[in-house]
Amino acid sequence: MTVPGPDTDLEACAREPIRIPGAIQPHGALLVIAETDRRLLQCSDNAADLLGISLPQGDAPPPVEALGDPRFAADVDTWLAGSDPFFRASAQVTAGHARAGVLPADGAPSGGSPGGSLGAAPPNAGPAGSAAPDAGASRRYQVLGHRTRQGVILEFEPEDPRDRETLDSLYPRLQRFLQTIDSTSDLRVVSHAAAVEVRRLTGFNRVLIYRFDETWNGTVIAEDGDGVLPSYLDLRFPASDIPAQARELYRLNRLRLIPDADYRPVAIRPSTSPVDGTALDLSFATLRSVSPVHLEYMRNMETAASMSVSIVIDGQLWGLISCHHRTPRRVSPPVRSACDFVGQFLAQHIGARQRMEEAAQRIALKRIETGLLARLARADSFQQGLLDNAEAWLSFAEAQGAAVVTPDGVMAAGRTPDGEQIRQLVEWLQAHSGGPVFATDSLAAQFPPAAAYADVASGVLAISVSRLHASYVMWFRPELVRTVTWGGDPRKPEPSAADPGARLSPRTSFARWRQLVKQRAIPWRRAEIDGAADFRNAILEFVLRRAEERAELTDELQRSNKELESFSYSVSHDLRAPFRHIVGYAELLGEYAGSLDDRARHYLGSIVEAALAAGRLVDDLLNFSQLNRTALALSQVDMRKLVAEARRSLAADMEGRTVEWQVGALPPAWGDPALLRQAVLNLLQNAVKYTRGREPAVISVSGEERDGETVFAVRDNGIGFDMTYVGKLFGVFQRLHRAEDFEGTGIGLALTKRVIERHGGWIRAEGEVDRGATFTFALPKPERET
Amino acid sequence: MPDLRPLLLVEDNPKDLELTLAALAKCQLANEIVVARDGVEALDYVYSRGQFGNRDPGDPAVVLLDLKLPKVDGLEVLAAIKGDAARRHIPVVMLTSSREERDLVRSYDLGVNAFVVKPVDFGAFFEAIQDLGMFWAVLNEPAPGRVQANDPWRPRRWQGD
Questions:
Q1: CATH superfamily ID and name for B7-159
Q2: pLDDT band at A15 (very low <50, low <70, confident <90, very high)
Q3: A324, A352, A380 - which closes a domain
């Protein structure tokens, strides 16, 4: 590769002063002048030989004038008067002119095109590092300039006379290249065309198109070569080959050239800038001397010359056009510009394609999302909605499994880890996932326990759908075992044989090395991750809307409860009156018509009975409905007393019968005394009623304290009931016996059950026809009081 | 010596009125029974105004007051009587169809002397009315301003059936 990078110690490399090496490569000379008065601030050691300029300047004229090309001096003035950060020109330098302090009289013609960006360069330009021109001889230079806070940097590269021979051929050739690419061309096709074009422009032995992945490993996706250097096509190179600071520099300065890896660096004098006292920043200088580590890396790769052009898409370093030559090789500035142009074109093309693909993906995702949300909207809860539409849910993220985790539990669809594993994953997510969306294609690498289920969930995309508790919607992708061919074993650092341990050493082997990549899924695409974030917002909105609907429903319930209350209030007043009147008038009629016969009396009696029954029904119903409205007044209740009272009030019902009561030692209960009295009375009344005809009737009441509750049982030896109908026993108006056998409105047990349940307790019945019945109820004990 | 001041019966429902009067008739009370059909008439009687502007002076021995009445309801009438220092001593018995707790509570809050839920069972209703009539009209000595300490009619709830 063209780029520096040890794989021994990334951090040490990060400390390498690559921006401020204090030296340049020898194939050109560098001047730093003050922007204001153009005086010389710093220069490379070889400036004296190449340009006849050195420090201290003494009485010499400012360097730009001293070079002896007034046209160039004017170009510099024009540039510096403007705001353009970069400058390109050519200069005809008469060596010795400056030293002689003689201003040029002849104004040597400048054959170049100042400011022009496309010069011509033959692919076979000679080796770099030109010898000093003869004293007094005139030489043409390509000059690149840029402004820095430490002054204006001017870089002079001698122009090869042959550079101009193909000047005219460069432009049409680029045009042809552009025409071979159309907007639908596949990435590999375009990349290959770019590699071919750059090789044709520069004559390098090998040109690679190198693409970074999300962890900055690089893969060679296209290549053109003449066979002198080995093919690297499809090989992968570890991120450490190109350290972060180098990547950042490539992002800012797209072009870098090393004509001869065996060069001797030329120092810049003085070593610190007179402007700020620090080393000169050469980030944007093309002559910048590179790290010795990188030079060793190049030698290990058996390449003498290299050039790289950055492919930058939307401000991000996407990849590199990486060129190598076995022997030293120089590339003229115009040709470099042409290569940069190819690189930029490639970046544009790839960027446009990516955006197009992403837009298509997003549209497809949006369609799935819209469909899914429409169905969710009709669901009771988003969890259930997702589960009911599992197919769309899975396809939304092209996942094989999905799960939704809420405080209510884990619900899963497709191939997923088990419930406990998902719960543990959620715990980990809560502690480690920073944002609302989490995505990984290698869960086990971050969360080792996930190795156990790598086959179903190496890839996880999770969105947090609650701000309050651990609620997530997640998608899973299975492991996809792949073979990756590395250019050299990325795991094994090799000490440099030449200088072991003395400095950072790049690796020496680039032999193919195959690696089986495990516990890794197909990575989530940007569109899928963004889609998940959108989906998250939609679910949050859904949940919020549901909460609002619930609140509205609660309001409505309260309203209808109020209505019901006023309804039962008027029922209580108005429905009872007619029954009272019927009874009253029937009785008056009986007294008034003293001589009614038996049949008439029977009729009249039936009217009274019916009206009385109806009146009781109304009263019971009102009691029942009131039960839900009145607040419980809780206190400790003496159940022995309660049972004794109930027995007393049942005395009339037991008249003339033998009832044997077996009342055990009843523990106190916790509840509303009035309501419990009602409940106990109902149960005892039932027992008395349904033992009618038994001689003796045996009714037992027992109680015991259990863990957290007090349990009571009322048992009788009455007619019992068929367990088949036990479910109906506690229903309102449910009767299991004929009305003429046993009187009652069918509300008593419903009322009792409601009372017990309002206390948070339970009640059950057991019975057998003709063998009696047992009613057991439990009341929770109060929470421990302080 | 029986208290021969009239009983004021406030009842809007004609059937209830007829039945109540029938029950009171059984008591064979010598007291006059004055009937008011709504809250306004009841207060007119108490304050000797309107159609009762020319009535004989004196407070009724007892007011039997239905809770639900047109115009001014029973609780308002109760509040007016018990809120007036000059009339507060008049015994008021609330008669009602309602078994509603809140009516009971409000009546007691307002100072009712007794509260009777009219039972559906007419026999029980007769008994209740008769007891009331006998007590207030016959047994109870007029004790303006207060109720006797050993008064068996201290506020309590009667519930029939």
A1: Response regulator (3.40.50.2300)
A2: low
A3: A352
Residue of B nearest to A614 (CA): B120
Nearest beta carbon to residue A572 from set B99, B121, B161: B99
Report d(CA A586, CA A588) in Å as an integer: 5
Q: Global pTM?
A: 0.53
Cβ–Cβ below 8 Å for A588 and B19: yes
Cβ neighbours around B126 below 10 Å, total: 21
Tell me the CATH number at A646. 3.30.565.10
Q: What is the pLDDT of residue A96?
A: 55
| Of the candidate ranges A45-49, A364-368, A746-750, B69-73, the one whose mean pLDDT is the lowest | A746-750
Per-residue pLDDT tens for A340-355?
Answer: 989 998 999 888 888 8
Q: Does B160 touch chain A (CB under 8 A)?
A: no
Task: Please tell me if residue A571 touches chain B, with a CB cutoff of 8 Å.
Answer: no
Distance CA A106, CA A154 (A): 24
A192 and A94 together in one domain: no
Express each pLDDT in A117-163 by its tens digit.
Answer: 333 333 333 344 444 444 456 888 989 999 999 999 999 999 877 66
Which B-chain residues 120-149 have CB contacts (< 8 A) with chain A? 120-123, 125
**Residues of chain A found within 8 Å of residue B96, distances taken between Cβ atoms:** 573
Residues 591-630 of A with CB under 8 A from B: 608, 611-612, 615-616, 619, 622-623, 626, 630
Helix (H, G, I), strand (E, B) or coil at B59: coil
Burial of A130 (0-12, 13-18, 19+ CB in 10 A): buried
Task: Identify whether A282 is part of a domain.
Answer: no
Residues of B in contact with A630 (CB under 8 A): 101
Q: Which helix (H) or strand (E) holds B14?
A: helix B14-26
Task: Indicate whether A198 and A231 sit together in one domain.
Answer: yes
Q: What CATH code is carried by the domain that includes residue A62?
A: 3.30.450.20
For tokens 């990516």, name the residue. Answer: A354
Share of residues in chain B with pLDDT > 70 (%): 78
Touching check for B22 and chain A: CB below 8 Å? yes
Domain coverage including residue A107: 23-163
Q: In terms of Cα–Cα distance, which of A510, A529, A269, A268 is closest to A397?
A: A529
Cβ-defined contact of B101 to A626 (cutoff 8 Å): yes
